[in-house]
């Protein structure tokens, strides 16, 4: 590996990067790679190849890409008009191989495992990370251990099981499972690619790199990110910082951490100026993918927002459903978590907080097909008719 050290985001302690380690042994906060700011954007497709100079790998030998990354940045002109913005874009991460942005961090984590001579990987997940890790492990001939909640529904288990991982339903406190898996992983040489481990943050940087390139290095004012563990928003911010230091861009957009009000530990702490996250008693949200009551990167996200000048927003279940429907009216079907950034922008507008904001990007994190259960709450109109009456029925219209 190019980078020899990981640095603690909390206290600055350093650890050798060869180890399977994600947490600072001194203060318990997340470790991450130092900024990588030298080098160029290579004229290659595929995120690991294109941004290799900014990733902790010397080469990609052993990695079998599935075309992750390189997702479209879609202009949302009509919604921009409603919001009073000059431009709004949507980064469509549902176009990744397993239909969410998680494939970026998984790709980096899998390559790291291969380079470290590890033959087994794993993750703790109830949502998109589980199928992502299982899929990439299968493709690379690695064993995968996927730890899920005991009561996970069968319709969520099936799309993980198809890749034939060792799928384990774990009874007990789900919150403790995350840290426990990292400890077991270190002991048994299993690379747990959990939501905010250093490699996942490295993978998420490529989201920022692509936005810079797609906007021809003219930075938007805001980038809005639906946030749970905090790993993704940390990666995006780190990516912008690296491109700034490398001289590609001249300013860093403000990052907006968007959460569901029903489970909003980062928003709550930020609002009252706390430096540390407190456990949130989740009231349950349709945005399952961002329902983490005690985000492992929460404290670091607060520190990051302080440095970045960004802020948080929390939205109700109704606002999420409305945003999901608004996205569909532009042809895009996202799972509820993916609609949270747009919902946050409408709320910010209502609160008068979009004054002076001209250009914004929302991160559309995952496909709507992953959460079809919520569709019964959208309500829809349909009709039935007999074949003999079809011509009349169509003529009469559906109004
Ligand atoms: C994982 C996930 C998130 C949250 O990302 P974090 O890195 O945990 O903050 C948001 N949306 C979707 C669809 C996800 O799968
Ligand atoms: Zn530390």
Care to give the gist of this entry?
The chain is of the alpha/beta class.
Mind telling me the C-alpha Rg? 21 Å
Number of DSSP strand runs: 13
Major sheet summary line: 6 strands, mixed
> What is the count of DSSP helices, taking H or I runs of 4+ residues?
13
Helix and strand pattern: EEEHEHEHEHEHEHEHEHEHHEHHEH
Assign a percent range to the helix content: 25-40%
Which residue ranges are poorly predicted, with pLDDT under 50 across at least 5 consecutive positions?
Answer: none
Q: What is the general shape? A: globular
Strands of the biggest beta sheet: in what spatial order? 4-5-13-10-11-12
Assign the structural class, choosing from mainly alpha, mainly beta, alpha/beta, alpha+beta, or little secondary structure: alpha/beta
Mean pLDDT: 95
Describe this protein with a few key phrases.
399 residues, alpha/beta, six-stranded mixed β-sheet, 13 strands, 36% helix, binds pyridoxal-5'-phosphate
């Amino acid at each position: 590996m190019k980078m020899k050290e990981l640095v603690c985001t909390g206290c600055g302690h350093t650890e050798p990067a060869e180890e399977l380690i994600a947490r600072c042994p001194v203060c318990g906060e997340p470790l991450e790679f130092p900024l990588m700011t030298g080098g160029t954007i290579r004229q290659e497709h595929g995120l690991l190849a294109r941004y290799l100079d900014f990733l902790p790998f010397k080469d990609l030998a052993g990695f079998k890409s599935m075309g992750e990354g390189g997702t479209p940045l879609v202009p949302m002109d009509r919604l921009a008009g409603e919001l009073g913005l000059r431009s709004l874009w949507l980064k469509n991460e549902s176009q990744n191989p397993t239909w969410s942005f998680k494939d970026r961090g998984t790709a980096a984590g899998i390559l790291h495992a291969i380079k470290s001579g590890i033959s087994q990987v794993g993750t703790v997940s109830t949502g998109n990370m589980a199928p992502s890790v299982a899929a990439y492990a299968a493709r690379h001939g690695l064993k995968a251990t996927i730890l899920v909640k005991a009561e996970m529904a069968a319709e969520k288990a099936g799309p993980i099981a198809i890749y034939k991982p060792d799928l384990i339903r774990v009874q007990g406190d789900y919150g403790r499972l995350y840290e426990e898996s990292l400890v077991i992983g270190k002991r048994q040489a299993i690379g747990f690619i959990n939501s905010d481990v250093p490699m996942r943050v490295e993978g998420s940087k490529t989201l920022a790199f692509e936005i810079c390139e797609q906007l021809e290095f003219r930075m938007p004012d805001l980038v809005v990110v639906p946030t749970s563990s905090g790993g993704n928003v940390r990666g995006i911010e780190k990516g912008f910082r690296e491109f700034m230091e490398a001289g590609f861009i001249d300013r860093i957009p403000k990052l907006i951490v968007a959460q569901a009000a029903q489970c909003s530990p980062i928003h709550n702490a930020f609002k009252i100026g706390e430096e540390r996250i407190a456990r949130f008693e989740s009231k349950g949200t349709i945005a399952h993918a961002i329902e983490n009551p005690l985000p492992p990167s929460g404290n670091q996200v607060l520190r990051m927002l302080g440095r970045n000048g960004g802020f948080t927003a929390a939205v109700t279940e109704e606002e999420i459903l409305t945003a999901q429907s608004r996205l569909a009216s532009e042809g895009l079907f996202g799972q509820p978590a993916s609609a949270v950034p747009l919902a946050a922008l409408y709320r910010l507008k209502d609160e008068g907080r979009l004054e002076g904001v001209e250009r914004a990007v929302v991160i559309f994190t995952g496909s709507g097909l992953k959460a079809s259960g919520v569709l019964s709450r959208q309500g829809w109109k349909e009709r039935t008719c007999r074949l003999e009456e079809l011509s009349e029925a169509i003529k009469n219209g559906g109004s």
